[in-house]
Specification:
Elements (H helix, E strand, L loop, with lengths): L15 E2 L1 H6 L2 H7 L7 E2 L5 E2 L1
Antiparallel strand pairs: 1-3, 2-3
């Protein structure tokens, strides 16, 4: 669990990025701007679905 704040384990169909890691990466807008993801959906709790 502790590593979830610094490392992201991806899946080919969807990935949930926790809030702490999303903030480190610049937030949902910055993640969307990379073009690396088909869709970026912010969650109410602060995480992001990629």
């Amino acid at each position: 669990m502790r590593e979830a704040r610094t490392l992201l384990r991806g899946y080919s169909w969807t990935t949930v990025c926790p809030e702490a890691l999303s903030r480190r990466l610049g937030g949902p807008d910055a993640l969307a701007a990379t073009g690396a993801f088909h869709a970026v959906h912010p969650l109410r709790a602060g995480g992001v679905v990629l």
